[in-house]
Amino acid sequence: MMDSSITIAAVILSISLILSRVLYVIYWSGRPVRNKRVEPVSTLIVLGSGGHTAEMLNVLSVLQKDLFAPRFYIAAATDNMSLQKARTYENQLADKTGAEVDRIAQFMQIYRSREVGQSYFTSVWTTLIATLHALWLMLKLRPQVILCNGPGTCIPLCVIAFIFKVMGIRWSSIFYVESIARVKRLSLSGLILYKLYMADQFFVQWPQLQRIYPRARYVGCLM
Amino acid sequence: MGDTEVDGKLKRMVFVTVGTTCFDALVRAVDTEQVKQKLYARGYTHLLIQMGRGTYNPTEYHGEDGLVVEYFSFSSSIADHLKSASLVISHAGSGSIFETLRLGKPLIVVVNEDLMDNHQIELAEELAERKHLYCARPQTLRQTIESLNLDFLIPYTQGDAKPVARLINRFLGFPED
Prior knowledge:
Chain A is an alpha/beta fold.
């Protein structure tokens, strides 16, 4: 009798401790750093097919590259085009600055949890593999900043980044820019990150979206 | 705008692009006699179709009295075709849309209604509402070409990523510019 009540008390105590830590992380996540700084931050950039990569490279082109370094580019394993575009971009940068690409940029692919048209039964297994792969990459990279703009591959990475924050492994700032193609409704990735308070800053490119999602910041069209 | 002279004759090309998608409904729609006649009547001389992963092959034509029709699946020089076009008819992918608008080319976006989660309609309709382009469906393309009035279109001012960069910098404590 005594034992079980101690167990229950311990369980309740640990749950409330974890919960309060989660709330603490959510509270501090959306807040900017107070001190000015100039040392560079390691940056993870999640790329996706179609217009996603073009938009992301547009954002990168106006960031000060020496402050967002090193840069880790991640794209889905089935997407060969995006990393190629990122590589071309980094090569052009390196030509201008004379730096070595290999030292400031890395390019890697990540397994997708579910391909278009895949059955839900087999996707249990592939989701597990994709999550473990994402965990492995995040443990290795531990980026200080994550930039993403829509492809589903950013979800496991952002969830793991959030768990790292809760566990005190690494505090990373997540910036999410909703794709310009989303005018009236958020993408599924955007919706998940917004609703779960996982993005430190959430940007939208159309004013209609900002009216529906008031925590988002309207930044105008990037393209 | 994009007009070039070939052997003393004015070349005015309509470039149709579906990107990396399969959009046979659009290729079929431009390949109909009515649409080709309408385009020819409006002074276009060439029709170049990029058909992507589609399987429907349009009928080529190289005759003197009518629209010259050519097609291909993929090319690394899409940008060049866009540059030399006088009118672009495109699928609703944001990449194609903004590349065309940036070049200041008149654009008809045709929405693929067979796509499952078709959020692309949102972008095409919003830009059509702002009069930067025309938005059509494969079955309404003919009417759109008939009522085409290029003076009606408002040039698109290219967007700017600096506001996002400024907010990210401010958040991280970096100098803002």
